[in-house]
Amino acid sequence: MNSTTNNSKNDHFDGRVVVGMDGSESAMRAAKWGAREARLRGRGLTLAHAVLPTVIDGGFGLGIPPRLDLIDELRRVATTELTDIAAHLNCPDVDIHVGVSSPSGLLLTASETASMIVLGSRGHGGFHDLLLGSVCNQVSAHADCPVIVIRDEPHDDAHEIVVGIDGSEHSIAALDFAFDEASRHGWEIVAVHAWDVPSYDLFISSEAPIPIPLENIGDAEVRLASEVLSGYAEDYPDVQISERLVRSSPVLAILDATTDAALVVLGTRGLNAALGALLGSVSNAVLHKAHVPVAIVPIASHPLDAA
């Protein structure tokens, strides 16, 4: 096991599974999930912790920087704790990184070269702001690699990956990740494509849009889902695929499909070609409400094959 305490960009993140650690129970679940994923992919695991000492108010609006010995002590304590955690993870290549940074800053820097970032849904300590709506939202929205937020653990028999599709390039990135993950784990894909019908004002001016017949919308959505999934069946013959096309709120449709889900996969945002449904709001809502791990995948994610 190696360790580092500098906060510069380095190979301690390069191609590795990086877990945001803060000593919370949620972070420990993330570490165990990340260790399993690192082993499966033949990649190293990095436990990352952010040290951000409080700046003392010196009066007149001036802040007094923390003492260097305080920073060194925080680093020492964090390194000791992470070393103990690493020793109990079943992973042959575990590294430690303690950086002087904000939690989101450290993780976003890591995402530039990491294969994926894994986070607990709530945290404290060095990651005291690791609450959905703050660090998790910042990192999942802006990271350069997939971000997996560990909510509750799925049940032991969970064998499906639920992935939201809408035809956008963001949902294609999510599908790429989902099928790769399903193939590695021997899981099934449940592709959820949900749409709703826009409401129209009772008073329609001559410039207002003309309502689309419901049967035309349904046919268009079926064709869209079929076209999106057609190539994946050929590329991943080992992965069983089921489609759920639902006229419903995308959030409700995805959550309803998670009964046997081991993971939910979504793009950072998207645009339904037929109805203009914004997937970014869907991703955010699912992050807050899902009871299984959720992966948020950007377009420019790194290749995820084994190193």
**Over all CA atoms, what is the radius of gyration?**
21 Å
Supply the helix-strand structural class.
alpha/beta
The gross shape turns out to be elongated
- Name the helicity range: 25-40%
Q: What is the name of the CATH superfamily of the largest domain?
A: HUPs
List the helices and strands and how they pair.
Elements: E1 2-4, E2 17-20, H1 25-41, E3 45-51, E4 56-57, E5 63-64, H2 68-87, E6 94-100, H3 103-111, E7 116-120, H4 135-142, E8 147-150, E9 160-164, H5 169-185, E10 188-195, H6 214-235, E11 241-247, H7 250-256, E12 261-267, H8 279-289, E13 294-297
Parallel strand pairs: 1-6, 2-3, 2-7, 3-6, 7-8, 9-10, 9-12, 10-11, 12-13
Antiparallel strand pairs: 4-5, 8-13
Question: What does it look like?
Answer:
- By secondary structure, this protein is of the alpha/beta class.
- It has two domains: about 1-150, HUPs (Rossmann fold); about 160-295, HUPs (Rossmann fold, 3-Layer(aba) Sandwich).
- The protein has helices spanning about 25-40, 70-85, 105-110, 135-140, 170-185, 215-235, 250-255, 280-290, and strands at about 1-5, 15-20, 45-50, 55, 65, 95-100, 115-120, 145-150, 160-165, 190-195, 240-245, 260-265, 295.
- Strand 7, helix 4 and strand 8 (about 145-150) form a beta-alpha-beta unit.
- Helix 3 (about 105-110) runs parallel beside helix 4 (about 135-140) and helix 7 (about 250-255) packs across helix 8 (about 280-290).
- The chain is elongated, with a radius of gyration of 21 Å.
- Residues about 200-210 and about 270-280 have low confidence and may be disordered.
